[in-house]
């Protein structure tokens, strides 16, 4: 019995131990199944992952996700070694940040140079190091989302520099701009960027304003077409592709018409005009899928855009169905207190912004501690915070950042600024040059020329050619006009270069030397204009806008007369530029004027006296080659103006699609601009004929078919931008005298004829009626087809019936 009992007890003990072990193992297995939380499971829907992650987050962690700090302070570089900085570690651990801005930006404001900044492979290493720290050294391992400036190229060292937006829109080629945008996106994404700031969709109807160069011009329809192209190029068909970035639309809204041209000042725009002209480009871009929108610095009718709930919630989200996130412009949340004075405290400013619909704080000092205070004092409900955080996290999941937070540094080094990308920059630059005048067919120049003078402050100036929001450049990255001409003509042609003068500083002028060079040459190419080139002596606001101050006696004056913060009183050529132009023209040598600049300038004397004028805007790194291609006939110019060129600041605002009634002339001169919207010449000549209008002319669901015959009547193959304008003859509210409603860029061989077709639908024919409803009204409409808004070649009417 004893033995049996003992045996039985041993067996029971053994069985108990086995059961216990099994239980422990089962528990461990169960725990193992739970070690991967739902938010880290890629097989689950995004909404499920967002919900799970947010349920685990503290209030401080949620607020931190909305902070977009200045990123260039977050890495350290010693020699060729790159890593995270102590500033980054502190921001992550103490402020729980979720985003960075301009991490790879380099310019005088950031104090990042070719030495202290990052080459593409180093940039990838830096962003990888940041992501690694976030994932391995934070409680929840939420990856960063990095926003970068991308308006005409990724604003980082070693990337491709394209023409600024005014040059892009001068191409009138949305397909080309979409291709450019996809290239910019890929370069940013290869280095670890996730968001590209752009496009800028502000209408530029105030050329004194400093940021005209960043826009697509004065017209809502052209802005919309270019904006949609940029969004599609940036975002592609799959935001998780590893090739694309989120597009951030700037600046919401009406930022481009500040009173007196003062950057960021108040705007007086009626509600009808806001919805008819300023909002449509943004609406089109949102409908194209844009996932981010940036607020503007200005106020509209007394409401700052960063606290305008009607715009950010009622219009953007409710009316348009926007499902991305809204980010403040740099410092615009704190500006509610410091600039607009609509908030007494910083926590009130934070509350105004987030309650209005701002989801992210660019700069990181508008929300942060002040938003936490606003939450704890019930100025903001946690449900409002959760709404904003969910929008940011949703995009991190949709981009696949939790699964693929890193990039390939070697690939970035190989593929950023590739030969194909440089070739694309040259093509965009060529198509963006506008030939304003070519009297007596001075252009194209003969390549067999023996001696040419290349003169002017922008003839051989790398940075003056690139525009604002451009990183430092290696000397061999940029082809200036002088270098482009040298590349084109080789060593058999004598090229005499003289700067002649600076853009603004008259102490550098040597007009006599320029005159001697022009007098001895067969032709003088004179390159004038402006500059947005920042320098390391310029002082900056917290928003990165330049401070304009009086220059100390004896100190050289910067060329910069355009770019953020450099607003103008006049549009005259500054410094001794006009004197230089007049002196060169007086030599009797044929003159070709090339303009490199960011805004329309006073060209009255040039238009009257100089036989040939090319407007290149800021043409980017390949600008010199592109301009030389046009000067010597290797490319037939096809650019068209996206903005009117006034004869006087006294005309302002002057844009083609102003509201009825028709404007009359002034005592001193005509009301018309010097060069009208859509103007641009070619070496080819084109004949327009056979306008036909047909279709369903019922006002309830109109579909209007328009066709015409276009013939190249020259011996030059060339492209023509056929422009269709519409005039509503009688409408219930005052309509524009004409409005661009369609355009096509068409290539024709010599003596070739093509049929060009357009289709107008309800959206093209609608009017915002007295009840603020978009409707199509019965009545007569006039179709105008031409080569510009002024150069109308064909015209006919149709009538919509009830």
From TrEMBL:
Residues 720-789 form the Fibronectin type III-like domain. One of its GO terms (biological process) is glucan catabolic process. The keyword Disulfide bond does not apply. Pfam families: Fn3-like, Glyco_hydro_3, Glyco_hydro_3_C. It comes from the Bacteria. GO terms for molecular function: beta-glucosidase activity. The keyword Hydrolase applies. Residues 1-30 form the signal peptide. Keywords: Hydrolase, Signal. Gene3D superfamilies: Glycoside hydrolase family 3 C-terminal domain (3.40.50.1700), Glycoside hydrolase, family 3, N-terminal domain (3.20.20.300), Immunoglobulins (2.60.40.10). InterPro entries: Cellulose_Degrad_GH3, Fn3-like, GH, Glyco_hydro_3_C, Glyco_hydro_3_C_sf, Glyco_hydro_3_N, Glyco_hydro_3_N_sf, Ig-like_fold. Belongs to the glycosyl hydrolase 3 family. This is Beta-glucosidase. It comes from Echinicola pacifica.
């Amino acid at each position: 019995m004893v033995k049996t009992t003992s045996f039985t007890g041993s067996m029971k003990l053994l069985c108990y131990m086995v059961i216990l072990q099994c239980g422990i193992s089962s528990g461990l297995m169960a725990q193992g199944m739970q070690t991967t939380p739902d938010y880290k499971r890629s097989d689950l829907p995004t909404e499920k992952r967002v919900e799970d992650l947010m349920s685990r987050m503290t209030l401080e962690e949620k607020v931190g996700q909305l902070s977009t700090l200045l990123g260039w302070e977050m890495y350290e570089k010693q020699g060729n070694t790159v890593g995270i900085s102590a500033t980054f570690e502190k921001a992550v651990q103490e402020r729980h940040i979720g985003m960075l801005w301009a991490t790879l930006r380099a310019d005088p404001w950031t104090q990042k140079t070719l030495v202290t900044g990052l080459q593409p492979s180093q940039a990838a290493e830096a962003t990888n190091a940041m992501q690694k720290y976030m994932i391995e050294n934070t409680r929840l391992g939420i990856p960063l989302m990095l926003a970068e400036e991308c308006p005409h190229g990724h604003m980082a060292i070693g990337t491709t520099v394209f023409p600024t937006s005014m040059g892009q829109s001068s191409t009138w080629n949305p397909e080309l701009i979409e291709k450019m945008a996809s290239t910019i996106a890929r370069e940013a994404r290869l280095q670890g960027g996730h968001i590209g700031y752009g496009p800028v969709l502000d209408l530029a109807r105030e050329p004194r304003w400093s940021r005209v160069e960043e826009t697509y011009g004065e017209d809502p329809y052209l802005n919309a077409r270019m904006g949609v192209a940029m969004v599609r190029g940036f975002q592609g068909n799959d935001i998780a592709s590893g090739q694309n970035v989120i597009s951030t639309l700037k600046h919401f809204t009406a930022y481009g018409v500040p009173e007196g041209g003062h950057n960021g000042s108040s705007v007086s725009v009626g509600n009808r005009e806001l919805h008819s002209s300023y909002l449509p480009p943004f609406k089109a871009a949102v409908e194209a899928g844009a996932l981010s929108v940036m607020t503007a610095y200005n106020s509209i009718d007394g409401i700052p855009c960063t606290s305008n709930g009607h715009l950010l919630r009622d219009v953007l989200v409710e009316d348009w169905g926007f499902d991305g996130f809204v980010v403040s412009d740099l410092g615009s949340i704190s500006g509610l207190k410091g600039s607009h004075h609509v908030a007494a405290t910083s926590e009130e400013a934070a509350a105004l912004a987030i309650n209005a619909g701002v989801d992210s704080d660019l700069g990181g000092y508008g929300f942060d501690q002040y938003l936490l205070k606003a939450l704890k004092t019930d100025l903001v409900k946690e449900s409002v915070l959760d709404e904003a955080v969910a929008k940011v996290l949703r995009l991190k999941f949709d981009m696949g950042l939790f699964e693929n937070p890193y990039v390939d540094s070697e690939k970035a080094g190989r593929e950023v600024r590739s030969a194909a990308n440089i070739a694309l920059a040259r093509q965009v630059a060529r198509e963006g040059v506008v030939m304003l005048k070519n009297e007596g067919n001075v252009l194209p120049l003969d390549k067999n020329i023996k001696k040419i003078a290349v003169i002017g402050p922008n003839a051989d100036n790398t940075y003056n050619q690139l525009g604002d929001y451009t990183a430092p450049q290696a000397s061999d990255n940029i082809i200036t006009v002088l270098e482009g001409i040298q590349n084109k003509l080789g060593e058999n042609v004598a090229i005499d270069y003289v700067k002649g003068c600076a853009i603004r500083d008259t102490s550098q002028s040597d007009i006599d030397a320029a005159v001697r060079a022009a007098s001895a040459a067969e032709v003088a190419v004179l390159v004038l204009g402006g500059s947005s080139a920042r320098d390391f002596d310029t002082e900056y606001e917290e928003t990165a806008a330049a401070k304009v101050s009086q220059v100390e006696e004896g100190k050289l004056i910067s060329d910069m007369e355009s770019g953020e913060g450099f607003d103008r009183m006049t549009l005259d050529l500054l410094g001794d530029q006009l004197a230089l132009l007049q002196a060169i023209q007086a030599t009797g040598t044929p003159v070709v004027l090339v303009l490199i600049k960011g805004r329309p300038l006073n060209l009255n004397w040039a238009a009257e006296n100089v036989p040939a004028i090319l407007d290149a805007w800021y043409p980017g790194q390949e600008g010199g080659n592109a301009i030389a291609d046009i000067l010597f006939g290797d490319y037939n110019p096809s650019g068209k103006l996206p903005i009117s060129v006034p004869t006087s600041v006294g005309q302002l605002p002057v844009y083609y699609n102003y509201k009825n009634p028709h404007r009359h002339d002034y005592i001193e001169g005509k009301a018309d601009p010097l060069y009208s919207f859509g103007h641009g010449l070619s070496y080819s000549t084109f004949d327009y004929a056979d306008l036909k209008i047909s279709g369903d002319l019922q006002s309830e669901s109109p579909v209007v078919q328009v066709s015409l015959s276009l013939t190249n009547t020259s011996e030059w193959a060339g492209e023509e931008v056929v422009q269709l304008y519409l005039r509503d003859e009688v409408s219930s509210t005052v309509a524009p005298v004409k409005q661009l409603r369609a355009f096509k860029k068409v290539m024709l061989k010599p003596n070739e004829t093509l049929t060009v077709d357009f289709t107008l639908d309800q959206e093209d024919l609608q009017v915002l009626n007295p009840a603020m409803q978009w409707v199509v009204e019965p009545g007569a409409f006039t179709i105008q087809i031409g080569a510009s808004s002024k150069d109308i070649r064909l015209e006919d009417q149709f009538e919509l019936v009830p």
